[in-house]
Design goal:
This protein is mainly beta. 0% of the residues lie in helices and 66% in strands.
């Protein structure tokens, strides 16, 4: 089983073929294909590992956009005693759900 490390949205993800994951929002429509640059590729059976500096030239990870959405609401409460100050704000982080189709080393 081959796995790779990709970087998107300022974060790094360890991915395998067929895996679904939520990443930072990408401005793409559902069903679109996106390619990611690869930082590391490894094959578990052959113990063959390629590490990029910072990326591996010629290697890419292809993924398909499954859905665009927003995660569950996170409540942010601010409170200061003795001053009648209360503030309640919510936040919903947008995300893009992708499915890893192919890892090409």
């Amino acid at each position: 089983m081959t796995f790779a490390v990709i970087q998107t949205g300022g974060k790094q993800y360890l991915v395998r073929e067929g895996q679904e994951l939520k990443i930072e929002k990408l401005e793409l429509e559902e069903g679109a294909t996106v390619d990611f640059e690869v930082l590391l590729v490894s094959d578990e059976e052959a113990t063959d590992t390629k590490v990029g500096t910072p990326t591996i030239s010629g290697a890419k990870v292809s993924a398909t956009v499954i859905e665009q959405g927003r995660s569950a609401k996170v409540a942010i409460m601010k409170y200061k005693p003795k001053s009648r100050y209360r503030r309640n704000v919510g936040h919903r982080q947008p995300f893009t759900k992708i499915k890893i189709e192919k890892i090409a080393a």
